[in-house]
Amino acid sequence: MNSRFVPDTATKIEPLPRAPLAAIVTASYAPDFERCRLLCETIDRHVTGMAHHYILTEHRDVALFRQLESGRRSVVDERDLLPRWLHVFDDPLSGFRRRIWLSFRTQPLRGWHVQQLRRIAIAGHAKEDVLVFCDSDVAFLKRFDTGAFWRDGKVRLFRRDGVLSNDGHDEHRIWSRNAGTALGIDPANRSSQDYISTLIAWRRETVNAMCERIEKVHGRDWVGVLGSARRFSECMIYGRYVDDVLDGAGHFHGSEEFCRVHWNGKPLSDDEFRHFVDTMAPEQVAIGMQSFIGTDIGRIRRLIGLQ
To answer: Which Pfam families match (predicted)?
Structure first.
């Protein structure tokens, strides 16, 4: 067997400290600024157990987002996270409305690709033990303690078992397959697990080990490896690294989603919005209104009582 397919038994997984430090991580951009402001307000109102909140943005958006900084919140410029050989431009093919990231080492990347790269790269910048990922179009409605993400020295890995064996999910299967390729997992070892959600947690040291694994397998920078595939999911890569490379070490699984998300369709009416909130599952503490749907942020504020 090619050595690159051997499980990474050299990675030692120590139990988390008795009281691990947790950071919330949010990747955002200028069009979502007001949504991110609402997220920050609801974090400050409802979330406990957080040592810090990192907001990851493109360089040109840093000054805008610095309005949200506080003693426990800081804005991180992507130039401090990603290689300088990855350059961002206004895309002429979109009438200069969208941004595109170009290099000789990757395919052309869009903002949603680069947001995923930032989420991975923050592990090399942050000091906290646990990274909790929360999109900027999320708002917390109930009390929540980040301690929900660890137990007995292990971090909770969100996983929905067997989902990729069902009809549909074609894109997720591609992301899972590309995750396996990036990690050097035998292509015959297919995964049917889905790891994609918001308000999920990773171990910081495990993310860094995952990046080292990718670089060892391919002999080049992990950003270049992932950017060359283009169709990837950071959640799939981390999930498959934990389960298929580390055999789950340092983690326990949970399938309950702490955030209820309105993924697609049209904006909800006021009555539909109230029903959406009223029918949240007991474990759900936050809602997400996908920004591309176009729900007015002022209306969200009014309906959750923050206006």
So the answer is: DUF6492 (PF20102)
Per-chain mean pLDDT for the chain: 93
Structure token digits, residue 147: 């301690």
Domain with residue 92: its CATH number is 3.90.550
Report if residue 140 sits inside a domain. Answer: yes
Number of domains in the chain: 1
Is there a contact between 10 and 92 (Cβ–Cβ < 8 Å)? no
**Amino acid found at 155:** V
Which of 166, 217, 242 has its CA nearest to residue 2?
217
219: Cβ contacts below 8 Å, ≥ 6 apart? none
- In 3D, which of 68, 76, 120, 78 has the Cα closest to residue 99? 78
Q: How many CA atoms lie within 13 A of 277 on its CB side?
A: 17
Query: Whole domain around residue 85: which residue ranges?
Result: 18-303
> How confident is the model over 76-131, as pLDDT tens digits?
999 999 999 999 999 988 888 899 999 999 999 999 999 999 999 999 999 999 99
Residue 75 bridge partners (DSSP): 55
Whether 13 maps to a domain, the answer reads: no
Q: Does any domain span residue 192?
A: yes
3-state secondary structure of 102: strand
- For residues 214 and 226, is the Cβ–Cβ distance under 8 A? yes
- What is the per-residue pLDDT across 130-181, written as a single tens digit (0 to 9) for each? 999 999 999 999 999 999 999 999 999 999 999 999 988 999 999 999 999 9
CB 42 within 8 A of CB 139: yes
pTM: 0.94
